[in-house]
């Protein structure tokens, strides 16, 4: 579904990330790559009011989030793929607060290790390697 056009605000490579809506077994997943705020606005418009069950939180939960995107997506499960103790400070606390406000079950790879979402939308956390 994305990129539909080039966005020059922020990082062009990040905003050119492939964004997919995947429908499988009655579930809808939004896979967002590293899109930043300007691209998130466009993605939000493109999905309209579609029900999203699972979202891969954009750009590792960076501060480059569009503040209405989490509420508009309103997922049941939000996954943050992020390295532990990364140099970028991802995920940003303010961005995480926006996702937490949706009421979604949140999984973070830095805290929870490998994550799996089951068909009933339960989240399996496999633990961080080395702990």
TrEMBL record:
SUPFAM superfamilies: Metallo-hydrolase/oxidoreductase
Protein name as catalogued: Unannotated protein
Source organism of the structure: freshwater metagenome
Gene3D superfamilies reported in the protein's UniProt record: Ribonuclease Z/Hydroxyacylglutathione hydrolase-like
PANTHER family per the UniProt record, alphabetical: DNA INTERNALIZATION/COMPETENCE PROTEIN COMEC/REC2, RECOMBINATION PROTEIN 2
InterPro entries found in the cross-reference section: Competence_DNA_uptake, RibonucZ/Hydroxyglut_hydro
């Amino acid at each position: 579904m994305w990129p539909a056009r080039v966005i020059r605000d922020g990082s062009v490579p990040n905003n050119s990330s492939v964004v997919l809506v995947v429908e499988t077994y009655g579930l809808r997943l939004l896979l967002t790559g590293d899109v930043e705020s300007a691209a998130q606005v466009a993605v939000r418009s493109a999905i309209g009011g579609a029900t999203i069950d699972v979202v891969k939180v954009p750009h590792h939960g960076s501060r480059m989030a569009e503040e209405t995107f989490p509420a508009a997506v309103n997922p049941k499960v939000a996954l943050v793929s992020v390295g532990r103790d990364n140099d970028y400070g991802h995920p940003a606390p303010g961005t995480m607060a926006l996702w937490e406000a949706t009421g979604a079950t949140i999984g973070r790879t830095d805290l929870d290790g490998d994550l799996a979402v089951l068909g009933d939308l339960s989240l399996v956390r496999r633990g961080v390697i080395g702990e």
